Amino acid sequence: MFGITSSLLILLVVFLSWTLAKSKLKKRHNNAKAAALGCLPPLVLRSTNWIGNSILRESMKATKEDRGPQYVADKMDSISPDCHTVKVPIIDYEILVTRDPENVRALFTSPDFDISHHRQLSWLPLLGKGIFTSRGDIWRHSRALLRPQFAREMISDPQLEEHHLQNLWGQLTADATTGWTPKVDLAPLFFKFTLDTATEFIFGQSANSLQEHDSAKDLSRHFNAAKVWIDKRGALAKFYWLMNSKEFKEHCAVIHKFADGIVADRLASPEKRNGAAAADPEKGARFSLLNELAKETQNPQELRNETLHVLIAGRDTTGCLLGWVLYFLARHPRVYARLRTEILNRFDERPADFRALSQLSYLQWVISETLRVATVIPLNERIALRDAVLPRGGGPDGQARVFVPQGTQVLVPLYAMQHRADIWGADVEEFRPERWETHRAGWEFIPFGAGARKCLGQQFGRQEVSYVVSRFCQKYDRVENMEEGDGRIRLHHAIENRSGTGVQVRLHEAKASATA
């Protein structure tokens, strides 16, 4: 027994010595290559405990307190307001964090960088392989499969939006005397609305979650719960596998069952095409993404994966953005009054088409300012596929190039970049849509990503938000904030930023004022 123990101890010592020697040799190699390339190291944000995980723990604590994006910005500012790229050692590995637009340009356009395998593996249990979780040839195949569908004019369907909007408004009954609705949290309603529109757009049939009263069958609830688990897995990076549970698997299974059933039905009955969605597009039929994809592949696993990838993007980011727009409009009655006036002057009470809404400048300013302040996607990331270089961030003044060794993960805190006073002005923390009258966005504003992986459905999402907001402005002449508490904005991070206190408002119907 003693001999076995001694052998194990010797093996452990040998392994640790080999690991340490390998690490030192790698560090020496990287330092020599960095020097040869004229690179300097960035400033370092060090842990305060011997384990080396204090920054990770602080970050997770801030996320739990709905201030995760602010934590990153504050931490970089604590080094210096001019510090825009830092190295962060965490336990046995290092990451880079940059909010420098020039570095972001390099990360999103250079073939030296792509999404990390941590991101891939964190998402796989829910989405499988597809456009958001793949690299290389698999990603290119997914992109080629989906991209043509989002280039079609026929995906713009205000009638689809209007149908589900009426279902949403059915839950906002106003008092016949005062014209005011009761206090309501619009956030969950918007997530159900975008789930219903997205499922109908993708599958040709809606989840109808706005009309579902059985919580066990509420697909929106399963999406919310699964996303929380995925967010936790992503936060642990290389230790993502620690976040797994029977509950997570059950939520994924419900979502898979929903998609698998529709895909199987479509493949078994190609002539059925889910009613109206099957009609000839040239005759004005409603678009169905599944029908179009099924023309290219009959693989049920591939169809389920790709449609779920689009569903998660179409439902969550759009639902978050809708919530934030109403959140800010309720707190800025001047902005709401101007927006409503411009919409009524242009369209009266008629539902507008998407093209006309895209040309309404003030509405687009409101949406862009919402994306800037709340930052629906607060964080992006890339990993170095090979030894690479970032153009800035090294040396005491942050102007030298930075060497990025192969396998290094680089985080891009979009919130921190979109709250830089040196870029956006001294009023950077204010919600002021008018700033977009003169600001021409570059790489400091990429709310839907950029480069080859730029979101395919970004225009579709903005169109949907534009339509719903315009219809709210036509129906309600006032939106009043009903949130109680300290008024602090709470960025609840579950992949996307959503309001940690919801969107608690009451609304006043315009027709009630006319008849009063």
Layout of strands and helices, then pairs:
Blueprint: H1 2-36, E1 43-44, H2 54-64, H3 68-79, E2 85-90, E3 93-98, H4 101-109, E4 113-114, H5 117-127, H6 136-146, H7 158-169, E5 184-185, H8 186-203, H9 219-235, H10 246-268, H11 289-294, H12 300-331, H13 333-347, H14 354-358, H15 361-374, E6 379-384, E7 388-394, E8 400-404, E9 409-413, H16 414-418, H17 421-424, H18 458-475, E10 476-481, E11 491-494, E12 496-499, E13 504-509, H19 510-515
Parallel strand pairs: 1-2, 3-9
Antiparallel strand pairs: 2-3, 4-6, 5-13, 6-9, 7-8, 10-13, 11-12
Explain this structure.
With 516 residues, this protein is α+β, with helices and mostly antiparallel strands. The chain has one domain (38-515): Orthogonal Bundle (Cytochrome p450), CATH 1.10.630. The chain is 51% helix and 12% strand. The protein has helices at 2-36, 54-64, 68-79, 101-109, 117-127, 136-146, 158-169, 186-203, 219-235, 246-268, 289-294, 300-331, 333-347, 354-358, 361-374, 414-418, 421-424, 458-475, 510-515, and strands at residues 43-44, 85-90, 93-98, 113-114, 184-185, 379-384, 388-394, 400-404, 409-413, 476-481, 491-494, 496-499, 504-509. The strands form four sheets. Strands 1-2-3-9-6-4 form a six-stranded mixed β-sheet, sandwiched between helices. Strands 5-13-10 form a three-stranded antiparallel β-sheet. Strand 11 and strand 12 form a beta hairpin. Helix 5 (117-127) packs antiparallel against helix 9 and helix 12 crosses helix 15. The radius of gyration is 25 Å and the shape is globular. The model is unreliable at 274-284 (pLDDT under 50).
